[in-house]
Amino acid sequence: MSLGQQLAPHLPFLRRYGRALTGSQAQGDRYVRATLEAIVAAPGEFPRDVDPRLGLYRTFQAIWNSTNFDEVAADDVAEEQEAVARARLSRMTPLSRQALLLTAMEGFTPEDAAYLIEVDAAEVDALVAEALAEIEKQTRARVLVIEDEPIIAMDIESIVRDLGHEVTGVAVTRDEAVALAMEDRPGLVLADIQLADDSSGIDAVKDILAEFNVPVIFITAFPERLLTGERPEPTFLITKPFQRSTVKAAISQALFFDESTVPA
Question: Taking every annotated instance into account, which residue ranges of this chain make up the domain Response regulatory (predicted)?
């Protein structure tokens, strides 16, 4: 199997990491594109002594550390939420943010994350704790859950409340989700794709976003429906079955980029 074939399945998730790290789909994709260009230009320098996914992210990290894409083109002016993210990012050390995303969002072990960001493994847990503490200080929200499986919905509610946020309601259909959102406007939406009456969580989110802007996290067993390479894509996408730590990290990261959250 060629190197390209080995790396292809991991690219949608690298794009997810790039978007979460930068707060911008366009900017995150620039780093991913630069990563691929570097691999194509010098395939012999690609790390061959580790898993291909680990080597891919290590190459991305090298690009991230050496390239500055902060200056964007005139037709790619940062949206307001990106400006909010940059202001908040300035209050967090870069390593702690990367450690959080790599472990809680991308699922790397602390040892692998240490390899990727070039620190001692013992430092990773401390960096993650530092990142979560900083984010939690800055963000609070009211959350709408769109999920038709009662046990999963209860688990998500518990996670949301453990983080200090309030749940405005749990919807099991598209119509119910839209009605709840209009009745009590949330500051964050957590949405499944396949709902109880065969309606779509994607359509519910589109209906809500047509009325007002709100950050959205999709939690689904069907990530391929959203990671298509077509725009717009969700910045935050969690695959079922999920880890509680992954959902916590996604909530914190999504709120990190939203101006409506109230600093603690």
Answer: 142-255
